[in-house]
Structure prediction request, 923 residues.
Amino acid sequence: MSSNSVVGKSVPRKEGRDKVTGRSQYVDDMVLPNMLFGATVRSQIPRGRIKTITFASGIAWDEFVIVSAKDIPGKNCIALIGDDQPCLASESVNHPEEPILLLAHPDRHLLPSAVEAVSIEYDPLPAIFTIEESERRSEIVWGEDNIFKTYLIEKGDVDGVWENADHIVEGEYTTGAQEQLYIENNGMIAAFDAVEGITVWGSLQCPYYIHKALMTLCDLPAEQVRVVQMETGGAFGGKEEYPSMIAAHAALLAIKSGKPVKIIYDRMEDMAATTKRHPSRTRHRTAVSKDGKILGGEIDFTIDGGAYLTLSPVVLSRGAIHAGGPYYWPSVRIRAKAVATNTPPHGAFRGFGAPQSLFAMERHMDRIARAVGLSPVEIRRRNFLQPGQTTTTEQVVREPIDLGKLLDRALDVSDYHSKKQRFANENHVVKTRKGMGIATFLHGAGFTGSGERYLNSVVGVEGCPDGSVRVLVSSTEFGQGTKTVLSQIAAEALSLPYDNVSMAQPDTLEVPNSGPTVASRTVMVVGKLVQSAALGIRQTLISSNLISEGYTADEFRSACQQYVDKHGAFRSWSRYEAPSDIFWDDEKYRGEAYAAFAWAVYIAEVTVDLTTYSVSVDDFVALQEVGKVLHPLLARGQIIGGVVQAIGFSLYEKVMWQNGRMQNSQMTNYIMPTSSDLPPIRVFFEELGNVYGAYGAKGIGELPMDGPAPAIVNAVENALGIPFDSVPLLPEDILEALSEDGLASAAQDSVTSTGEVR
Amino acid sequence: MTDSRKNRAKVGISITVNGQPQTVRAYPMERLLDVLRHELQLTGTKEGCGEGECGSCSVLMDGILVNSCLVPILQAEGSSVVTIEGLAGGETLHVLQEAFLECGGAQCGICTPGMILAAVHLLNEKPEPTPEEIREGLSGNLCRCTGYSQIVEAVAESARRRTTA
Prediction:
């Protein structure tokens, strides 16, 4: 890349100026003439049959538009992987907050009391709320066995490893639900026209998911459904699938009323009704040699999917594939299972199953280290995957990754060894305890296995009549920098200044389906397609003899204008092609799970206050290899933001459930980190180069969610000498553990050692 | 949004917003946030939680930082309010807006208007804050994207530019 490169520079965020001046248009900022406001009447019970619905007197019901399941023109479902989730419950409900009726009125102030005035009588049915209750099957709440999906990953002869093991280390680890807590609540506007069909504008990640859901729900052809993304105020996965539900509701009200309808959730409704991170339970049983090498093991990974299938199979898949961490397993058996309960469906959240299974793996590595008598550093070093070795799915590591080198640098910049020594000396004399913790991990970029092949994404780059260039993708901006980085890639491919490239608003009438904006795929997968579509524009102008190599920006502009004048529209399309050397077996769950992995070493320094039992993070080093860093400022922002969200997951954010309903659905009592709770997060990048993605970039967005929880809990163990195997880890958990065990003695753990030297 | 509030008559309220005198008719207990957004079409002020926790609706009222979701419009009678729309002078950005752009202080942008007004207030009170004072001063404004570091850096950079300007 030349010194004129756009890629690798921190160019201004495309939509930044509108954001800092308040000019950006989010969905709640949009007003249409004669617009009504919509609200949702939801189930008050976790499970039961709907007996009667009554509308209390005292409300001018004739002024309201009322929609029930009977008003659905097509199929009553939110089409996604399965069609099991109703758009509106008609006969029975399977979780609290399940939508039953919709109301709309011109005055938004009248809606809350109207929702209150609808009373629904139920025949309640017994409900289940935990993984264990679901496994017991005393109640079958989904399918024949409460199981949404299972996977089995098998490598080598696990059954043969136990008798030769010097140590057999077992552990069970759990993680809680977590709310995405984007600061902009969910919202959607729908308008209906008999000719044009349905149009929705909203806060969303995946325009074409909504497009598909509305076609099924409204029984409309593709050309009569239009989805437009407004500026979106944070998403983190939380606006991947639930916006289809809200779009469906707004659409039904718009069809029935003939007027545009806006639905904006308030914070309590958003937190109580929409998706959260899947709670998980992971069990490890590992055979280890006396010198600390993993010989093999069994991993049992189970997630709570809530009441409907939604995205649980894919969350489960990613969690299962990441469950073995960045280590070499000569043999392994991973059993993964997603089960049903009567809570609102859990869904996509940054990391998508990997933060759960990696929390378990990285806590378990510290447990193995203790059993073997090695340090947390050494146990990891001895088991790191090396180029040429295979992952748990038998994917050969082709990247020239050197995890030992990453580890060394992280230890150095965090001053790990000397701090650890110092804390060990000082910890017994002060009212605070300090500790250091490590997590080493990986995150696969793009859809899993054959996923990208099925997505079959298409990207367009357009030469505009004024000679500028526009990128056409359904990939959405919600803070990560999609618009900026994809523009950089197009500008780089065309040797143009960054300002000469703009992004089309994601609108299904305008942009092709470049797939959902999820799975850390935008830069690596979509970016590569943008690069290739942009090169198509370049080659067309060159082969038409309108410009020659070494052209200036002005020459390009005039060539582009001439081309458009002569030929009309000037668009270059690029479709995903699976690399020929990638093989994946969906049946055996074996092969190349991801085209590339990002790799990381995170180190946390914590203080546990023995008066308040609170944990503070004093220093945090986040070192990662993500291929070429295309925009250093945005990349650093992604890492810091992810680490902080994960600090919340580790130490603050606990969803309090009662009968399947979130009790603390407010920012007052669901606590996320504030600026004063945090240390500066220190971010370091290694660039080893990856041939796969656009200009060598890999995925980055989800990676920082994976490592902080285990690094922090490992540090708390180092500080207190007591292992904790669950997040969130709250002061009350620490108080309880300290009361049980006392500070002096290290806690019992479930390590068993054969004790024989072979 | 109760019926009782609805049934009470609207009253005339005089306030100055971004230097412009305004008279609006609103229910006495209507939120300043709603009046700004719906009556004056100043949609740069955002609602995040509606209960004064997140600070997205922060504006300056007579120089004091308030959550506009907690201010009944009657209480704003006669006051002077500054919103995000009042900071830039035409196309010339306020020093904090510039710094937020350059330092990566805005990601999704939804907390940004409130965060910038909180920073304006902070720098009015403490023209040369330490990083700790910035973190403390902005702790009433929640951001879920940035992890705050680049916001803190933007405020520190603005302070530097103002004192050296």
Summary: The first strand of chain B starts at residue 11 and ends at 17. The longest helix of chain B spans residues 149-164. The mean pLDDT of chain B is 94. Chain B touches chain A through 60 residues (CB under 8 Å).
